[in-house]
Amino acid sequence: MDFSSKLLENAVNEVSRLPGIGKRTALRLVLHLIKQPAENTKFLSEALLHLRNDVKTCEKCHNISDTAICDICNNPKRNAEIVCIVEDIRDVMAIESTSQFNGLYHVLGGKISPVEGIGPQDLQIESLVHKIENGQIKELVFALSSTMEGDTTNFYIFKKIEKFEIITSTIARGISVGDELEYADEVTLGRSIVNRIPFEQSISR
Amino acid sequence: MDFSSKLLENAVNEVSRLPGIGKRTALRLVLHLIKQPAENTKFLSEALLHLRNDVKTCEKCHNISDTAICDICNNPKRNAEIVCIVEDIRDVMAIESTSQFNGLYHVLGGKISPVEGIGPQDLQIESLVHKIENGQIKELVFALSSTMEGDTTNFYIFKKIEKFEIITSTIARGISVGDELEYADEVTLGRSIVNRIPFEQSISR
């Protein structure tokens, strides 16, 4: 791309460094900002800078939070003995939106991924082991995505904690509610047959 | 969406005000920035602020430029008597990348669109008429997109300038080079038959 302005080129280059945003999309976004009042760009830039410079993570669960201890960890009504291991804040938000989980979370901050250069030491695994050693946790719910990296991380954590006497569980994999069986992939359908549950249990929810 | 952090929520809201970016995408982009070095966010914010505050448009063609007169208008090798009317800088970049046009541009800054509240007074039409009155232009090439808004704008400008003795032309519409006839829409194929050109002309390019 040949730009008529260095300022424009610079802005497009910076925006296109964001994941999933190419040069064309970046140009479209930047031209939109130029057409809008200057305030909008100011608000956007300030919001990003404030977030990046002042963002904190909860000391207990490592979720993104404005306070030292997040609202979930601080909530006395929640069951602190059940902890759900998730990858990042998006998973916390997804599970919270179901209103079906009343325990706490432990946000790893990613998955073990040799390809991306993420090892166990880059994730919040030590502090999880620490919590278990202290006897704070009775049940650990594994809720990482079922990919190669997710399974590797699950296995790594499981090996680290199997010597402790706690219950471990993993979220159920199966056919989505409302999905037709014929369109489901074999692995998911297979798992949902192997891990079938008593019929009464399914209608009680 | 229920955010655990006001800073995060604010940043996601600002990013999702950009066109074509929803809350989920905004969250993904913002989380990416958090994981990256703080410098990256600084560079991004500064690039956007600099652009928005210091961006200039060429006094002659109204294209985005860092100087009062852009490089194209300043180039003595270009034919100042042929002017191509386009909507915005993206069209200039697209035509420039073909290396087939040696005239100057006139960037309108949009199209007449009652739906979006854009009238002729919001576009750089007066200055175009002014250029023609001054006798600077011999040929005017219309290169707006062939949509309802583009056609309306074309017609409005044409009515304004038809009293002047200049050549007006419009870029050729037809089947794309390399496209198969059977997949072309009828309007385009119809136009390409009505506006057929001498065979010799097609192979001389």
- This entry's quaternary arrangement is homodimer
Q: Total domains of chain A, how many?
A: 2
Mean pLDDT rating of chain A: 91
Q: Kindly report how far apart the N and C termini of chain A lie.
A: 56 Å
Q: H/E order of the elements of chain A?
A: HHHEEHEHEHEHEHH
How many helices of chain A? The count is: 9
What is the number of strand segments of chain A?
6
> What's the overall geometry of chain A?
globular
Any overview of this molecule?
The structure is a homodimer of 205-residue chains. With 205 residues, chain A is an alpha/beta fold. Chain A has helices at residues 6-15, 23-35, 38-54, 71-74, 89-96, 126-133, 148-161, 186-194, 199-203; strands spanning 56-57, 64-65, 79-86, 103-107, 139-142, 167-170. The first copy, chain A, folds into two domains: 6-54, RecR Domain 1 (Helicase, Ruva Protein, domain 3, Orthogonal Bundle); 75-171, 3-Layer(aba) Sandwich (Dna Topoisomerase Vi A Subunit, Chain: A, domain 2). Chain A is built from nine helices and six strands, in the order αααββαβαβαβαβαα. In chain A, α1 (6-15) packs across α2 (23-35). The longest helix of chain A has 17 residues, at 38-54. Chain A is globular and about 65 Å long. The relative contact order of chain A is 0.07. Chains A and B meet through α1, α2, α3, β2 and α5 of A and α1, α2, α3, β2 and α5 of B.
